[in-house]
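Last lecture ended with a question: if I hand you only a sequence, what can you say about the shape of the protein? Today we answer it with a concrete record. The protein is Transcriptional activator protein Anr. Below, first the input exactly as provided, then the predicted structure, then a couple of comments.
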Amino acid sequence: MSLIQSEKLLFPHFSFFPNVSADVVLNAFRVDSKFINKESQHPQEVLLKQRKLKSGESLFNSGDKLDCIYIVKSGTFKTLISIPDGRFQIVGFHMSGELLGLSGIANRLHVGSCVALEKSVAYELPWQFTDISTRSSLISLDNICRLLSLQIINDYKLMLLLGVMNSEERLIIFLLNLSERLLFNGFSASDINLSMSRAEIGEYLGIKVVNVSRIFGVLTKRGLIEVSGRRVRIIDITKLFEAAYSEVE
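The predicted structure:
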């Protein structure tokens, strides 16, 4: 059973892993001819500025003016929001092809912060290019609505992940999610190099860091995965899925 076949048992109306490469996202944009450099063979790369970040550098911070939304070209980012007592909550990890900064559209201010977890590159999509009131907008109204819809769907999935599943199920689905996203970007689905720490995984999933390590150990003893530092190798994807959804027929 593949991951895509497995997910359809649970979510028949939408994919649990709606991720595509950065090139696919770029190709979905309707680019007006006046934005294109006629001498370039890659007009999007000329039009869209690239931001190169080192591990720990911020792409944007909470309260920043929304000048751009971003497309991850390479690397991994985490998004986080702050609470009044100064603590932060990780609300997502983002890989190639995924968009960042959509939550700032409502008030034209970024709601949370976005930090690179490794050497990463993101395309800047200036917000004025998405002005749907003009015919020269870079993104069509249909595409904007689809992006916002995907954001809502992902929020539903996070609520399900945190509200219904136990700690072991959360971590397994997290690994399967990363696996599928790697596969969609042309990498091996079985070899995962975690760019985030055990503590960051635990914070995102609502699991104590000691339990994250314990569950990794349990899954290793059961022959489902192999772990070496931040490298995780999935040995049997089907059995790993079944470990999270043993009641699914």
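Comments.
1. The two ends are 13 Å apart (CA to CA).
2. The first strand starts at residue 50 and ends at 53.
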